[in-house]
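During the no-cost extension, the postdoctoral fellow (Dr. R.K.) reprocessed legacy sequence entries with the updated structure-token encoder. One reprocessed record is reproduced below for audit purposes.
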Amino acid sequence: MERTSIQNMCIILLIMLGTTVTQASAEVFTVDSNGGGNFASIQNAVDNAHSGDTVMVNPGVYRENVAVNKELTILSNPALSDNDTNRTYVIGAVSKNDVFDVSSNNVKIDGFYIIGGRSGVEREEIGIDLEGVENCSLSNNAIVLNDVGISLNGSKSNYLDSNVVSLGDKGITLIDSDGNILSNNTVTTNSDGISLNNSLNNTLISNIADANTIGVYLGMSRGNIFTYNTIMRNLYGINGEAAKSNFMVNNSLYLNSIGINLIGSSENSIYENQFANFFDAVDDGKNIWNSTSKGNFWQNYTGQDADGNGIGDTPYVINQMTESIDYMPLMSTNKTENVSGDTSDNTGGNST
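Re-encoded structure tokens follow.
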């Protein structure tokens, strides 16, 4: 009899544990602006959700500012947002507030059209603001008409992938933020495209900065890696001020007024990039313009390659006074077209 009682107690305990696990499992809340979901607003869904839950938002127009203070996945419903007529718009209701204000780690925001409003006040309005957070993911969002499209402030190890940010003052801004990865994003028609301010060890790969005043800004930032980015039609392609020990490898800089502008910057490594700009490079510091085996391709380099090894026989001079020199300029088999329209014929470069 005693053994039977113990067995019964174990069964009851297992049932209770199973019920607890079921209750604690993640839930999916649907949001529909027409009333067809669990909630009609994203903020109401966020307020009622628990960490680990998913908020699935159906296409429609949501006029609200959303504060996210718990670990959530917030998705535009992929099953319904499959064409241009079914989009999920989030339009800031209060222009001085951020459209999405994220203050929790491990938040994912995916697939939204986010529209702000230039605030005109001292505090900048932000499309998606990550403040002091880690391991958040922002992907497949289109963010327009904000003071700042995406802002990371004191945030690290976050992932920004395949977002489009345009028609703002600043596109994507990192302030005191380290170890983030930005990939496949497009920033276009902003004042500053991507800005790194006092930020360390971030990776920017396969992004496009097009038709901004500054494509990429580096202010007092170190150890960042830029590779396979396309930076074109900006006033300044890359503008560095007091930037140190960054790596810029395999990028394409086309049709900028100035390709790379380094002021008060040193020990940056720049090689295997393609330059075709009105003025390719300015450097008043001591930076490294080639690796041990390769330099950069300069569209206005007219030196020869007598031994056919793909490396120019004479250096490309950026600034003779500071010894800013590419000692291994890359040759090209197709140099008949001068992309930037600069028809100068000089073996050196932009020497001053």
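The radius of gyration is 26 Å. The mean pLDDT is 89. The remaining legacy entries will be reprocessed before the final report is submitted.
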